[in-house]
Sequence to fold (373 residues):
Amino acid sequence: MTAVERVRSAVAAVTDPELRRPIGDLDMVRAITVDGDRAHVGIVLTIVGCPAAARIESDVRAAAASVPGIAEVEVEVGVMTPTERKALTEKLRAGRPARHMPFGPDSLTRVILVSSGKGGVGKSTVTANLAVALADQGLSVGLVDADVHGFSIPGLLGIPAGTQPTRIDDLMLPPVAHGVKTISIGMFLRDGESVVAWRGPMLHRTVSQFLTDVFFGDLDVLLIDMPPGTGDIAISIGQLLPHAEVLVVTTPQTAAAEVAIRSGLVARQTGQRVIGVIENMAAYTLPDGTVIDLFGSGGGAAVAEALSEPGATVPLLASIPLSPALREGGDAGEPIVAGETTDVAATAIRDLARTLARKGRGLSGRSLPMSIG
Fold:
């Protein structure tokens, strides 16, 4: 290979952090010249003001500099023409029409709803950490914050306020945090807005657009953080994704468990399958060995038993101990599973992610598109 070919090969392998594909495959690499130990590299970005511009330029510079014999790199950054952007969006869609819902029954993406009967059980915190833990298992993960009135996923994942999806013509690219592609109504509110006061039709339209207008690319798993209860959004997603699987989150408290059962039963009415129960805020052990069951015990097992049917047992997949570190991580926008901590809650969520990744759709008779060892 010539020096130019070696530099082009290295640069082409740089990954676009939003599209998660090599920029060579995205036709973003332009003219490359090498004069002695100096390389000049031309690239184009999708749009003016691309949020990933600085990172792409830095990665391109580093890739070119890694080629033996190259001591200095000059990167020239341009922007795609409308014709080039159109060709890119057509390539990304792979023949699918615009505003197409790619998560139907024939999709290879496993869709998992995380629901609860009531608020305050830590459902969103569990969902955010589970998404990150699944991504750490090597899966391509998307996360939809369908809790429109009580959205909290961006904050839990540390996505800065004001972050919006990147638009490439009619493609909407979700921000990526901790390896998880994420969308939330909180990304579309104007400055000063913090409340969404919508009713049925607007809620249905919003959830539908999250599933059709946002380009997630090829996903192994799409998690949907459901609002608590059995309201309009639960009904809408039941209509849009009747094949989805459901995880029900509860606390050990009897009152919470009784309400959680209802969310599972409503999901089942739409054809969705409850694949397991997650008990959050379970008993924890103090350093002196004292066990504190602040919210009682047995709620998770009770929900699992109530939702089980003859020939279709619903397992208690995880019991996550009450953890100050889990709460602190949520407040700071640093999911606890993203660190090296051995906190008991982090361990329980990582074990849950491994169970889901290992079994794939085996819990519902099908398998994930990729195998995790």
Residues 361-373 have pLDDT under 50 and may be disordered. The chain is about 35% helix and 20% strand.
